[in-house]
Amino acid sequence: MGIPNNSRLNLFSKWAHGKYNLITDVSGVKVGHITIKDKNINTGVTALLPHSGNIFLDKVMAGASIINGFGKSIGIIQIEELGTIETPIILTNTLSIGTAFTALSKYMLKKNPDIGVKTGTVNCLITECNDGRLNDIRGFHVEEKHVYEAIDKADIIFDEGAVGGGTGMCCLGLKGGIGSSSRLVKIDDTEYTIGALVMANFGEAGNLVIGGKHYDTNACSNNKKDQGSIIIIIATDIPLSERQLKRVAKRATISLARTGSYCGNGSGDIAIAFTTANRLPHYSDRNIMNFKMFYDENIDMVFEATVEAVEESIVSALYHAETITGIRNTTAIGLQDFLRQ
Amino acid sequence: MGIPNNSRLNLFSKWAHGKYNLITDVSGVKVGHITIKDKNINTGVTALLPHSGNIFLDKVMAGASIINGFGKSIGIIQIEELGTIETPIILTNTLSIGTAFTALSKYMLKKNPDIGVKTGTVNCLITECNDGRLNDIRGFHVEEKHVYEAIDKADIIFDEGAVGGGTGMCCLGLKGGIGSSSRLVKIDDTEYTIGALVMANFGEAGNLVIGGKHYDTNACSNNKKDQGSIIIIIATDIPLSERQLKRVAKRATISLARTGSYCGNGSGDIAIAFTTANRLPHYSDRNIMNFKMFYDENIDMVFEATVEAVEESIVSALYHAETITGIRNTTAIGLQDFLRQ
Amino acid sequence: MGIPNNSRLNLFSKWAHGKYNLITDVSGVKVGHITIKDKNINTGVTALLPHSGNIFLDKVMAGASIINGFGKSIGIIQIEELGTIETPIILTNTLSIGTAFTALSKYMLKKNPDIGVKTGTVNCLITECNDGRLNDIRGFHVEEKHVYEAIDKADIIFDEGAVGGGTGMCCLGLKGGIGSSSRLVKIDDTEYTIGALVMANFGEAGNLVIGGKHYDTNACSNNKKDQGSIIIIIATDIPLSERQLKRVAKRATISLARTGSYCGNGSGDIAIAFTTANRLPHYSDRNIMNFKMFYDENIDMVFEATVEAVEESIVSALYHAETITGIRNTTAIGLQDFLRQ
Amino acid sequence: MGIPNNSRLNLFSKWAHGKYNLITDVSGVKVGHITIKDKNINTGVTALLPHSGNIFLDKVMAGASIINGFGKSIGIIQIEELGTIETPIILTNTLSIGTAFTALSKYMLKKNPDIGVKTGTVNCLITECNDGRLNDIRGFHVEEKHVYEAIDKADIIFDEGAVGGGTGMCCLGLKGGIGSSSRLVKIDDTEYTIGALVMANFGEAGNLVIGGKHYDTNACSNNKKDQGSIIIIIATDIPLSERQLKRVAKRATISLARTGSYCGNGSGDIAIAFTTANRLPHYSDRNIMNFKMFYDENIDMVFEATVEAVEESIVSALYHAETITGIRNTTAIGLQDFLRQ
């Protein structure tokens, strides 16, 4: 739920945040976590539902930006081609995307008996970061049931920090995880919402920047390489076209830079943006369909509010993540513990 | 092993083919199939090994072209970013890519105990087409063991047609499957090889073209939509750069056109090209490394021989695929049966 | 005006063509040529107007595909980013695009006194092929006035063959030039038009294919390299989104393949598609605007009719181009002369 | 020559700069300016020479990143396809790129009598920003001779600030212009150089950030929209492949973010990177050529030093630009004047 005002982390902000300062401030979006913890195991699954109906039948318009393609996410290519998301979005660890794909496929098939019979297949959207620093990633501890449970748990209120897919993530020398934030923008006298959710696992120790200030986290970590990745989901109810959603997703790079990333070689940095305001039906009697888009000449406010929401989401992931010790006795310090030192 | 000369399928050809007229004419490349057949089940796994050593430690330079992105293949994004392939390439049905990913990850982890511990993760390359017309794709009949078995079976001699990943595929109104071919090109007095392997599942009934001649397959199929996909793997021992391999992969579109495709909306058409002549080590003491590339001004012969090899691979897939009847009592006619009518 | 039925050039066709079988069958589109011929000079300018109003104030939605980027066209990058065309499209020789840019900029500034003062600049769209085989291209014979004149001459009826920008072009061993065609498609009981115009200058002698039949043009030309380029303009009144227009543009590769191209290294193959059915205002009071797009699931007919229109445009360019002799006493044989031999 | 240490502009820096702290610290690179000033005229031309030989015959390996494609630069498409730069790079105002293209073409033709006769044409690289806030851009005041003069003046020592192509540029509410910087990195015991040069014309008043600190320039300017653009040239003597140069160019986005940009809609943000360490001959007897590339696993130092060099170049452009008053009596305040207030 964002960073408390008394946190001493002075993020620059031009726009107010939404009710919960979470991506779920965008009406219809829900998020659920399953956290899997046991001795050497620190991993999990986060599920994000773009809306509460049948997503396969009623797709949301989407765009993506592969900021740095050192990543194994599944489903990005088809977003690019068709401009839609048609399943929940799953966030988990790198080696578990196969299991997550199988589980999400079965979930979609159960809900849609026509898939693979009367119609084509389904484009499951599975994203990942490598939590191998804290988690026994080689153990494949995510099971299919965890994916169903994360989807079932999806709600408007959800936790941030070392939970769900973010359980074992590290970021900029500290403990990383799931963070979220939102911004409100007024367009033609109507209030719209932009929400962001990140699974933050990127950045070198020593490079952390918050609100323009450098923090030296070198003592906290021997993670001298930027090889973690970040998944960035941006949701909005502003009607944007496929091209515009790609442009919005691209702006997440700015947020990464504001927190100290230079998009390291080993970091799979993927941003996905969707709007709930343009829906595309799987079945249609008519071939010509209506959609709405934004006047590009004034789109800067959308870009800038997105940059803020993603930046705050990253800092919020750090802020809410508590110190944990994982596999090989590696400890990742939480930002609040770090600041108290 | 290509199309026999007496086949009446007059493919135009400027270059001679290699010893077996298979992708394995490129030294080091091997291919293995597991075919899974039972009542409603017509599916399988094909594994292609870029070379016989440890592919993770000794990567091959690669490029890819997403001809039409209605596809769910895993691993393409990282090829684009890093220009390498570091695992065997798996070809299977769309809904089985999760299982294939998990299996291939476990296989790689077993061979490389450093993955996820001392080094990052691994980029498994899993490709797919939808075999749901003939196969009970909703049954998830590919198991992890099938992937290991396909890799183990990999050899220089391999079958074409309705085998392995191609078992349940359909193409241009007829039975599709796996096809392969090769071409020899002489460069600076040395003979080099270009090989292609396809899993052909694309195209509308009624659009089949072979050697410039239209064949009306409408009677064979009610498949009036191009929604099947094709996976195209191109291997060579010509030293090409990452950029050049992407250009080579892009030329596969020409081969698709020559056989009757117009890259239909629902067809996930993916081409991947690699060269065994440029290897990139996973670990290196030196930061500056040597590689070789081709003089672009004369690269046309590489493009054109690639186009021929891919074209013949598609026709060879059709030629070798026998008539089969699958789920929902659907029959797909083999090309040789069709020609006999 | 397309290929006469008695031409013996049996193009396969599923759709009927429009009234004139020209790109101008798309209502509002106009084309004008200036042909510049004198001794060693064989060049010119073709101008295509997307509609008859103020294109800067009332932009058309557009997409582009860089099939092979060995080209110098100006303005493609901004089409990709903003999804619009806001000027006439100019086709000329490679070295004259600077002059054409200056001329078109001045033309746009004259019509729009706000450009560069109250609003930003303008994205002039200038495309090119190298006519240096027949034209003294080093002489920079295109002048600014030729661009104005080509725009002024733009009309619904226009010539094909060795005229305008196509005057000095060569193609597949024969004389190339400007060609055009159109196709009618019925969508939800309404008839729509897809039109194409090409400036054809690509392909190796020896590779010409028409209607699936190879023609050996090796005797006509010593042009053994595919280093000429083709510019492909696709216009339609079907409402397509920016993403869809890019997909349509991409399908032009299929038409190239059907006529014998393999997208040679030195060929700058650029396709641009626009729709007159989605207009974007330069100035808008509202930030949210309405558009129409096509149901992707049924878009195959649009793809396939486009492929036909572009294919026939290429053949029509050859068909209408007469034999000429240019600089260095080089002769390019017209297709009709070639067929008579 | 970079920012003096006593400037109070505390840029965070991990690497030392080169001898002159200019892009010309990369051996062989030279830069020349022509500044055109008269009443309402504030424009000019900057020419950058990748090396001192015949660039057409001895091309440098290159990559580019279109950060935001609201731009009209010429020549980027071919860099992408062929991975080379073969001419000097010209930086000027948006409407003058036609003139600059013609001039540079004539310059290249004079030096290379084979262009357009025995070989193909040449890919002139012309980049631009819109200086219409301070310059009578509608007057087309750049002439062909200015381009030749800028090339002739190219030297190792060159001015920064409101000179050459940067004469009329504005940036983040202040006077923009040309800036440059360099960084030294030690690789395998050898010292290499990364240099950057920018033409900075981007950013909203109110968003300026230097060294993590916000500066409120709202009082200086009514430029509330980010619609200016930035051209970023990165040169190095580190052997990087085409793919790696593209990755390096992409990292310039981070530098933009560090200075307050969010890549506004109207900003044409283009980055071009080249290495003098990989040369490609125009003519070659051999088809297989040797090159060197960097071990990606350790490329982070190249990325991070690039980000620093580009960031300092932007700040240096502001630092060296003096306050000027241009067309329509618009004043742009120089950073040093702003800091003195």
How would you describe this structure to a colleague?
By secondary structure, chain A is an alpha+beta fold. Chain A is 22% helix and 30% strand. In chain A, β7 (170-171) and β8 (174-175) form a beta hairpin. In chain A, α2 packs across α3 (144-152). The longest helix of chain A is centred in the C-terminal third of the chain and has 21 residues, at 300-320. Chain A is globular and about 60 Å long. The model of chain A has no long low-confidence stretch (mean pLDDT 96). The A-B interface holds A 66, 68-78, 80-82, 94-95, 97-103, 105-106, 109, 115-117, 120-121, 123-124, 130, 132, 137-138, 140, 227, 266, 268, 328 and B 66, 68-78, 80-82, 94-95, 97-103, 105-106, 109, 115-117, 120-121, 123-124, 130, 132, 137-138, 140, 227, 266, 268, 328. β15 (288-294) of chain A pairs antiparallel with β15 (288-294) of chain C.
Features:
L-amino peptidase D-ALA esterase/amidase; alpha+beta; homotetramer; four-stranded mixed beta sheet
Q: What is the architecture of chain A at the second tier of CATH?
A: 4-Layer Sandwich
Q: What is the count of β-strands of chain A?
A: 17
Work out the helicity level of chain A: 10-25%
What composes the largest sheet of chain A?
A: 6 strands, mixed
Put simply, the count of helices of chain A is: 7
- Mean pLDDT of chain A, rounded to whole units? 96
Distance between the termini of chain A: 24 Å
CATH fold field value of chain A: L-amino peptidase D-ALA esterase/amidase
* SS content category of chain A: alpha+beta
Low-confidence stretches of chain A: none
The neighbouring-strand order within the major sheet of chain A is 4-3-14-13-10-9
> What is the subunit organization of this protein?
homotetramer
The helix-strand sequence of chain A is EEEHEEHEHEEEEEEEHHEEHEEH
Strand content of chain A: 25-35%
Give Rg of chain A in angstroms. 19 Å
At the fourth level of CATH, the homologous superfamily of chain A is: L-amino peptidase D-ALA esterase/amidase
Task: Count the domains of chain A.
Answer: 1
Which pair has the most extensive contact?
A: A-B, 43 and 43 residues
User: What is the top-level CATH class of chain A?
Assistant: Alpha Beta
